[in-house]
Amino acid sequence: MAEDLGLDQEQKDSYLSESTGFVRVYRYPCCPTGSGNNNWGMDVHTDSSVLTILCQDLVGGLEVSREGEWIRVRPIPGTLIVNLGDMMQAISNDEYKSAIHRVRISERHDRISIGYFVFPGEGVVIRSSNYQPFKYSEFRAQVQMDVKMLGFKVGLERFKIKPNSDDNNNNNNNNNNNSKGISSHFQG
């Protein structure tokens, strides 16, 4: 993807910093029907990362949105799932889109997944023709403030450059139709 986007080595190193990635283990206890729970372990969201590498167990529950339709990501033994995040969307000028996803809780089995999240360096300035320049640390702080004040993540829309005319708006709509995939399986 970095080659496809024409990133030089310095950009690759700063946008995909080894020192800022982290691993998170998620456990979703089973939730029997009728327990009063909405059966969502994680509501609809995008990851703030450049990309997320996910190892899920065989219980499943991950769903991704593609063109407004929810698709279940079937667990395949020995594979990893790669979801693109908000920073990849910004870096790519919206050529690649952040994966909109959610997690459904199983009624019978606990679900475990392990995610490795890759982030740009805190002080790295993300430059894109579709977004005003921003540091990842500014983006993260804005997301945290939005969640605290509004109850949800606004995300990249806060940094989007607003079009000045209908011509720019039409060009942006055409570019969105050519965006690349959101989620992939890779076998190890």
UniProtKB/TrEMBL annotation:
Please, which domain of life does this record's source organism belong to? Eukaryota
Q: Where is this region: Disordered?
A: 162-188
Question: Record's InterPro entries?
Answer: IPNS-like_FE2OG_OXY, IPNS-like_sf, Iron_ascorbate_oxido_reductase, Oxoglu/Fe-dep_dioxygenase_dom
Low complexity bias: start-end ranges: 166-179
Pfam families hit by this protein: 2OG-FeII_Oxy
Domain Fe2OG dioxygenase: from-to ranges: 19-120
SUPFAM superfamilies xref list: Clavaminate synthase-like (SSF51197)
- Name assigned to this protein: Fe2OG dioxygenase domain-containing protein
Look up and give the organism this protein is from. Answer: Punica granatum
Q: What is the lineage of its organism?
A: Eukaryota, Viridiplantae, Streptophyta, Embryophyta, Tracheophyta
